[in-house]
Amino acid sequence: xxxxxxxxxxxxxxxxxxxxxxxxxxxxxxxxxxxxxxxxxxxxxxxxxxxxxxxxxxxxxxxxxxxxxxxxxxxxxxxxxxxxxxxxxxxxxxxxxxxxxxxxxxxxxxxxxxxxxxxxxxxxxxxxxxxxxxxxxxxxxxxxxxxxxxxxxxxxxxxxxxxxxxxxxxxxxxxxxxxxxxxxxxxxxxxxxxxxxxxxxxxxxxxxxxxxxxxxxxxxxxxxxxxxxxxxxxxxxxxxxxxxxxxxxxxxxxxxxxxxxxxxxxxxxxxxxxxxxxxxxxxxxxxxxxxxxxxxxxxxxxxxxxxxxxxxxxxxxxxxxxxxxxxxxxxxxxxxxxxxxxxxxxxxxxxxxxxxxxxxxxxxxxxxxxxxxxxxxxxxx
Length: 381
Fold this sequence. Notes:
The chain is of the alpha/beta class and 381 residues long.
């Protein structure tokens, strides 16, 4: 007999909670070989959601209501998971929303995937058989954009289609190994944060199709601050994601430009060195500066990926510097050629021509850095 714990976070869901609970209980009666319990994680709803759940708990005898301070969906889940791991006996944990967007009739598919070997199963709207047909266009667009943003900012390359869905099943033995205290997302980004944690631990993740329904009773909890928190959390979660590394690379490049100009000015005005020679020296100084900062900051290794664990020999560092130096000089040539082409031949104004030329050089330098200079770091991430 496998023990299943269904966790349902709630806030002001008095219009839906009875229907959700009854739906889960009906599925539980039909499934053989499973013992169901429900954990309602209520954020002190002022509309009597918790009271309705407790009343139903007296009737069914397998429902516990966990109340706590309202602090966002992610915090509610962490509170519920922490309680469950300490106080509940279960083999499989299921998460689902309380607004009837997740149909309890899809629970058997989630359980079937877990018993087939998956550690973490996502009820997916975006694989064959999954639908969001009755959701308003703006909600579907919002979901698609959120998935796209999460994938790009977090750098998830695994073939997962629905990163933000909340209808999931996971094994107890896998969940217990995830450090919940490190999941810092307060709001809706928690779903992506949890998925990333399971992937980082090497657990088996799969998706099963679900028919996602639009809320018919009550109101959505999504606010502007939730969107802002989602974007911020997505950017901060995995510093080794390509976009984060590119941003750091750009910041280093900007600092290198300041070093270049400062060195050039000092050599010309204070050391009285020939301008062309001073320019060449300034370029090399800025290249060495950029290399050092990229090595210790941009590509050092962050987040769930290991940083450098040994010192590199002087020979290895010099070899990297030489590769970086030649790559950057090629980038400078490409930048100059792009500027000349746009300004002299295409008659583009010198400012946009220069911006495009700088962008071309920066993209080339980043490509050389990730593929050749620090390629081991890139493979590890």
